[in-house]
Amino acid sequence: MSLRLLDREFLDFCLHDWLAVGEIAERETVDAVLDLSETLARERYLTHFKAGDAQEPQIGPEGVTVHAEVKAAVGAYAELGLFGAGFPEDLGGHGLPFTVTCASFAWFAAANIATSSYAMLTVANARLIAEFGSAAQVDAFARPQIAGRWLGTMCLSEPQAGSDLGAVRTRAERVGEDHLGHRYRLTGSKMWISGGEHDIGENIVHLVLAKVAAGDGRLPEGTAGLSLFIVPRVLPDGARNDVAVAGLNHKMGYRAIPNCLLAFGENGGATGWLVGREGQGLRQMFMMMNEARICVGLGAAALACRGYGHALGYAQERLQGRLQGLGPEGASVPIIAHAAVRRMLLAQKALGEGALALCLYAARLVDGGDDDSAALLALLTPVVKTFSSEMGLEANAMAIQVHGGYGYTRDFDVEQVYRDNRLNPIHEGTTDIQAIDLLGRKLLRQGEGLAVLKGRITTTLAAASDGFADQADALKAVWAEVEAGLEMLRETEAALEVSTPFLFAFGHAVVGWIWLDLALSARGKGELLEQGTAAALRYYAACELPRVNAWLACCAAGAEVLEVDPGWM
User: Fold this and answer.
1) DSSP code string of 295-355
2) 171-180 pLDDT, tens per residue?
3) What positions does the domain Acetyl-CoA dehydrogenase-like C-terminal occupy (predicted)?
C-alpha cells in the first residue's frame, strides 16, 4: 500500500466544493498544479525524508553543505517554476491564487517539511520585497528568488532577545546611497535562522531587523526603532558580504535545513539596503511573519495528515488481538477492529483534516480581497498557527500510539513526523505569543473580525437543522460559552495571563464550525466523502467540543492559580 500523504479527494473537495476556488482559478489549472505537486513531492522530497534527517547539514571551511538530495529537490522545485507560482506574471510568476499555492505547498510539507521550508521562506521574503521595496530592489533581490535562483531568510531573533524583538541589538549605520537605495553598515548577530547558510542556489537574501544608531551612538529602545534591511550573502558586484555562520543549532527535527547563528559585520560591517523608511521594520516584517504563520500551520496540518495516513494504513494491516466474545480461539484481527484504535484514528482525522481545512480557509481569505475577509483573516491567523501546530502534534502522538512500540522506533516514519512537528508550536511566534495576539489585540482591542466570524457561524447553524441538528446545538452552546468567557475577560485586568487557555478554547470552537460547514458542503459529493466528513463531525462534536469548557474553566480560575513562589516549585 502506497503511503497516503494527504487525502486527495478531501483536498479537492475543500478547494472546489467548499471554498469555490473555481471563482478565482480554472479547475483544470488547479488540478494540474496539484498533480504536479504530488508527483514532485513523492519523487524528489519524500525520497530523502529519512536521509536528510540522519545526515544533517555540515559546517566547514567553505560554509554549510546540505544533503545532495535536498539540493536536487530544491533545484527541481525551481525548474518547474513553483517558487514563482503565486507571483504576478509581470514579476516572472504564474499568477496563481494563494489558496492554490498553499494546497500545492501542503504536498511538499507532508513529504518533507524541512526541505519544503527553503521555498516557504524564500517566497515570503520575495513577497515582502515586492510589496515594500523600491523598483530597483525588486529587480535586484526579489526577481532572482521568484525564479528560484536565489533563496531567502528572515532574520529577527538574537541570542539575548528570543521572542522579545524590542531587545534586538543589531546595529545599522547609514553610510551612503546608490541605485538600490539608502545603504547601511550592519553589525550584530541573529539566532535561529533557518536556511541562513547553505550551498543551494547562487545567493541568499537575508531580511534583517536592526536598529539605526542615533547621533550619540545609542540604539532606540523598543520595537518602534526597528528598521528592515536587505542583506545579501553576495553583493551585486560579486564580492562576499560580511555575513558569516557562527554555528549550527542541532535540532530535534527539521534537520535537513540548517538552523544558524549568523554574525553580521565581524570584518567592518555587512552591507545592507533599507526597505522603505527607518522605523517601519516591524510593520513590514509582520507581512512576512503572518504569511509564515499560515504556512507553519499548514505544514503542521500536513504532517498531522501524513501521520494519520501512516496510522490508518498500519491499523488496516496489523493483525493483533481478538474481538470480544470470540475467546482465545478466535482469529487475530486488524487492529482497526478495536474501538480504542478507531477512536484514535477518528481523532487524528478530526484534528488533522480539520486543521488542513482551517488553513485553506485562511488562504482563501487572503484571496478574498474585501474588508470582511481581511478582518476575519487577522482574527484567525493566530488560531490557524496554534490549532494546527498544537493539535497536529497531538494527532501525531496518537499516530505513534496506534503503532504501539514500533511507532517509537526509527524504523517507522511516525517517530520523525512527530519530531518534525514539535517545532511548529514554537517558531514564528510561540503559542503564548499567538494567544496574546488573539485576545489582547484581535478581541479586546479590535473586534471587527469577531463580528464577521459570528455572522458566518450563524449562517452555518441556520443550514444545519436537517441532519446535523445535534451537532449544531452543541456548537451553538459552545459558542455561547466562548462569548460569555470573553465578556468575563473584558472585565478582568489580568486577562492576558489566561490568554493561552482562551486561545485553545476559541480555536477548538472555530474548528467545530469548520467541520459543521464541511459536513454540510459534502452532501451529495460522494458517499465515502459524505460519510467520512459526517463521522469526523460527530466525533468532534461529541469528544472535542467538550474540551472548550475545560479551557474556559481555566480562564475563569484566573491568574491567582499562577501566583506561586518560585521556592515552592
Assistant:
1) HHHHHHHHHHHHHHHHHHHHHHH-B----TTS-TTSPP-BGGGSHHHHHHHHHHHHHHHHH
2) 999 999 999 9
3) 456-561
556-561 contacts at long range (C-beta below 8 A, 24 or more positions apart): 556/485, 556/488, 557/498, 558/492, 558/494, 558/497, 558/498, 559/494, 559/497, 559/498
Of 426, 354, 404, 415, nearest to 7 (Cα)?
A: 354
C-alpha cell at 200: 543551494
Give the DSSP letter of residue 76: H
Distance of CA 161 to the CA centre of its chain: 22
What does pLDDT average to over the chain? 96
**Does the pLDDT at position 437 exceed 70?**
yes
- Determine whether 549 is exposed, middle or buried from the number of CB atoms within 10 Å of its CB (0-12, 13-18, 19+): middle
Cell digits for 60?
Answer: 566547514
**Cβ pair 81, 94 in contact under 8 A:** yes
Determine which helix (DSSP H) or strand (DSSP E) holds 358, and give its type and residue range: helix 339-368
- One-letter amino acid at 2 equals S
pLDDT in tens, 285-298: 999 999 999 999 99
* Angle subtended by helix axes 68-79 and 113-132, to nearest 10: 50
3-class DSSP state of 151: strand
Q: Is 428 a catalytic residue?
A: yes
pLDDT digits (tens, 9 = 90+) for 405-435: 999 999 999 999 999 999 999 999 999 999 9
